[in-house]
Design goal:
The complex is a heterodimer of chains A (357) and B (475). With 357 residues, chain A is of the alpha/beta class. Helices cover 31% and strands 25% of the residues of chain A. Chain A has helices at residues 3-25, 33-41, 46-49, 105-114, 139-149, 161-170, 173-193, 204-213, 233-243; strands spanning 86-90, 98-102, 127-132, 154-158, 197-202, 223-227, 248-255, 259-263, 275-277, 283-289, 292-296, 302-310, 315-328, 338-344. In chain B, α12 crosses α13. Chain B is built from 17 helices and 24 strands. The chains are: A alpha/beta (357), B alpha/beta (475).
Chain lengths: 357, 475
């Protein structure tokens, strides 16, 4: 099948998935209180009007403010009400954190992601170190599940990003350095004490801090999965050329609302530019005009990321992210639109302190 | 497009993250500037010991020769910028286009850096009070019959530099002949001068590895400040306040420089009008040594009126005009915003005396640029906010206070030109803890003697006298 046909097939799969999810979330037998209440205020029945992805437009844009505060059970689909529940926070730099309930989505997301990892550099049965934000986030459980799914054990060291942001705001440079040392020292103890740790998840800042102290390849690390707001082409290059040459370095973009996007496989022709593809049809993003989100920008043009999440656990149509990037063409393994050079939305970048950890 | 690279141990490095600087007149791109990611700076700083050893292989005398050659190359040479070659005119035009400094003032500042490089031996003589510089090569020696030895406090001097005036770069130049390597973070709009100085040094025979040149963001600047044992930090009050507590960071915040006219000289104020005008308006009022206050014990109103009339003659001219004396603001909106900020604080004892002499208003346009015209405020109240304000254009508040309250009320000052026949007051100023540089007599605050320390002595910042004794030392 050529790429065009794959794109067409993926699109048909997306449209069918949209119909299935809309039926699920707006059916009083299976849907959650939030969406059923929302539907009651509409002058149409979404199940009748929405036949594919493009029709989601009539629902407008999801507002993440709806996720602030409780009761969180209003988000639990009736058909899943008897399942064990997780709640994960997102944001939290300002005001009351936003929460998303989760049942098994994070496990599914990371199992799908696992399929994209190389068995040579992320060996089956190898153990993992996760050095990054744990706490009330999805990430710790997700990485642990990824390790377990691949037959390994995950060791954890926590980093509290809200504390880091507090120190940055206070200009407490020494405190920041001490905290970074505190976190990396714990990580190094694990790496030195457990021979089978061959895979690492961490943030760009912590990767730098670790590499200041040791050679990760000498300590047996073969694959690194790295995510965070500092990730960009220059960091990708710096990591591959200088920090961890010879180690498989996989940048990722994920969040509690979407799940985990995959990175286009490394190709020297890209000059280290990072392109992400959402895990369609469970989530999909479009790159839209920041001043007119109804307009998709052309390929190779910069726009705002508009994210749609479509799982049985969570329905989030057309949410405008705080991120922008270049609209990228579909590729063989991911025959739908991607985004290159993802970064904080220019309009916001002066006013938001994010993730300098 | 022209590309200004990062310099890593003196080697050009093109980053995948670039910042484009635009001509403030047209918005047209002038140059790309490679941006160093913070981790790259950290990695380089970890290896700086090797570079210092290469520099230390030279004697101070050899490095002074290199300074002389670098002086000439900086002023007259064609020097590399990325893959291109930069003539002195290219440098002046680029600098003027992205910072708004008139070309004539850019050239004048070039001569300052040239002078310091060319006369480095005199400059070091001033900073070390005449130390036999071979002592730094040998490690110890005799000075006036006493054994002396100095310990270098760092392998690298970090410098987080401003964009306001290229003259400030003269201050870190002595580091090289003092055998300390550099990690420079240029101001966002002004990568031009530190890059050109580094290239002049390299072309003059200085080891390339002595130069780290890192255009970067706030986090990158933080790494330089955090990880160098000695550093210079230029910035506004908010920026510098977060680093005051860290030892080894020498702070260069706002100058709040002042002309003090007191006693009988305050009666003869007309004799000092020119030095007051020069203090305020030299170099477009952009330097920390420009006066933002004239503090007097009498005739405040008359001084303000006369100074206003005199400074109102300075016109807004295009940046390439040979007589241009004012630097342009980044945009008309920025100029208007600054002007509105001042207007919002007038009244309550503060009056813009210049308004009468320039009926068209404080904001002007010329040659595609916006300017804020020189402004003289008469402050009846010495605690008024504008009596303690400082802006990046010729701005001065004239404040009349009682003699006994003067020193305390005027607050901290980088430079004071003290024009007074009041011997006791002069003595009080000499012993005051809130005055850094001091000119005694009728002299502009903007006058700089390069053989004198500036806001801290760089030699003392980089070296510390150590006790030395023992049979291994010949008398």
């Amino acid at each position: 099948m050529g790429l065009d046909e794959k794109v067409q097939a993926a699109r048909e799969r997306l449209d069918a998935h949209v119909r299935e999810m809309v039926e699920w979330h707006f059916n009083p037998e299976s849907g959650c209180k939030f969406w059923l209440d929302h539907a009651a205020k509409l002058d149409f029945d979404p199940r009748e009007k929405i036949h594919g992805y493009d029709d989601l437009r009539i629902l407008g844009h999801f507002e993440d403010e709806w996720l602030r505060g409780g009761p969180v059970r209003r988000w639990v689909p009736k058909a899943l009400a008897d399942q064990p529940l997780y709640v994960f926070e997102t944001g939290g730099s300002t005001g009351l954190p936003k929460s998303r309930v989760n049942i098994r989505d994070f496990q599914t997301d990371y199992e799908l992601f696992s399929d994209t990892l190389s068995d040579e550099t992320f060996p089956r049965g190898a153990d993992w170190l996760m050095l990054g934000p744990t706490g009330p986030r999805r990430l710790r459980l997700a990485i642990e599940h990824l390790a377990q799914h691949r037959g390994g054990i995950a060791f954890h060291v926590d980093l509290d990003p809200r504390w880091v942001n507090r120190m940055i705001k206070a200009g407490n440079h020494q405190g920041l350095q001490d905290y970074k040392d505190h976190v990396t020292d714990q990580g190094l103890k694990i790496l030195r004490g457990h021979d089978n740790v061959q895979c690492l998840f961490t943030t760009p800042k912590l990767l730098e801090a670790l590499c200041e102290k040791v050679s990760l390849s000498k300590l047996g690390i073969k694959g690194i999965f790295c995510g965070g707001t500092e990730m960009n082409a220059q960091f990708n290059r710096f990591a591959r050329e200088e920090l961890v040459p010879g180690v498989d370095f996989i940048p990722t973009y994920g969040n509690t609302l979407m799940g985990l996007a995959c990175c286009k496989p490394y190709d020297p022709a890209d000059n280290y530019a990072i392109t992400y593809y959402a895990p369609a049809p469970r989530a999909i993003f479009e790159i839209v005009d920041p001043d007119d989100p109804e307009r998709l920008v052309d390929y190779d043009e910069v726009g705002r990321v508009m994210l749609t999440t479509l799982t049985k656990e969570f329905f989030m149509p057309r949410f405008l992210e705080r991120d922008e990037g270049v609209r990228a063409r579909p590729i063989e393994p991911y025959p739908w639109d991607g985004v290159t050079n993802l970064g904080l939305l220019t309009q916001l970048s002066d006013s938001v302190v994010v993730g300098v950890y | 497009m022209l590309h200004i690279p990062v310099l890593r141990r003196g080697e050009p490095y093109r980053s995948l993250n670039v910042n484009v600087l635009k001509d403030i007149r047209t918005g047209e791109p002038v140059t790309e500037v490679s941006q160093a990611n913070p981790g790259l700076i950290v990695r380089d700083l970890a290896r700086v010991g090797e570079a210092r050893r290469e520099l230390e292989a030279f004697s101070v005398a050899e490095l002074l020769e290199i300074c002389k050659r670098a002086a000439d190359l900086f002023l007259n040479g064609d020097l590399p910028v990325g893959d291109d070659s930069q003539s002195p005119d290219d440098y002046v035009r680029g600098l003027s286009a992205t910072t708004g400094l008139p070309e004539a003032l850019a050239r004048k500042n070039m001569t300052k850096s040239h002078y310091v490089l060319d006369e480095m031996e005199t400059v070091l003589g001033g900073l070390t009070r005449g130390l036999d510089l071979e002592i730094l090569d040998r490690g110890w020696g005799s000075q006036q019959g006493r054994r002396v030895s100095y310990r270098r406090e760092t392998d690298v001097l970090g410098a987080v530099l401003p964009s306001n005036s290229p003259g400030v770069h003269a201050l870190w130049l002595p580091a090289i002949p003092l055998k300390v390597t550099l990690a420079l973070k240029p101001g966002r709009q002004e990568p031009w001068t530190p890059h050109r100085i580094a290239q002049a040094f390299i072309a003059a025979g200085c080891p390339r590895s002595a130069f780290g040149f890192y255009p970067t963001d706030y986090a990158g600047a933080g790494e330089i400040l955090q990880r160098t044992d000695r550093c210079l930090l230029y910035g506004d009050t908010t920026t510098v306040s977060k680093w005051r507590a860290k030892p080894g960071v020498q702070i260069h915040g706002p100058g709040w420089s002042k002309v003090v006219v007191a006693g009988g000289e305050a009666e003869r104020w007309q004799d000092h009008l020119e030095i007051m005008a020069a203090s305020v308006a030299d170099n477009g009022g952009r330097s920390c040594v420009n006066a933002s206050g004239v503090w007097t014990t009498s005739n405040g109103r008359a001084i303000a009126e006369a100074l206003a009339e005199r400074l109102a003659q300075i016109e807004a001219l295009p940046l390439d005009h040979p007589d241009a004396k004012l630097a342009a603001m980044p945009s008309l909106e920025a100029a208007q915003k600054l002007s509105d900020y001042i207007d919002a604080r007038l009244g309550a004892g503060a009056e813009d005396v210049t308004a009468r002499f320039r009926p068209e208003g404080r904001v002007a346009e010329a040659g595609g640029c916006a300017f804020v015209l020189p402004t003289v405020i008469h402050c009846a109240d010495s605690s008024h906010e504008l009596a303690h304000a400082e802006f990046l254009f010729p701005f001065v508040s004239v404040v009349e206070v009682e003699r006994d309250a003067l020193l305390e009320r005027m607050g901290p000052s980088l430079v004071v030109s003290a024009v007074t026949d009041d011997r006791e007051l002069m003595q009080e100023i000499l012993t005051a803890t809130n005055v850094e540089r001091l000119n005694l007599g009728s002299m502009p605050t903007s006058h700089v003697s390069w053989d004198q320390p500036h806001e801290g002595n760089l030699f003392e910042h980089l070296y510390r006298q150590r006790a030395i004794a023992g049979p291994g030392i010949a008398a």
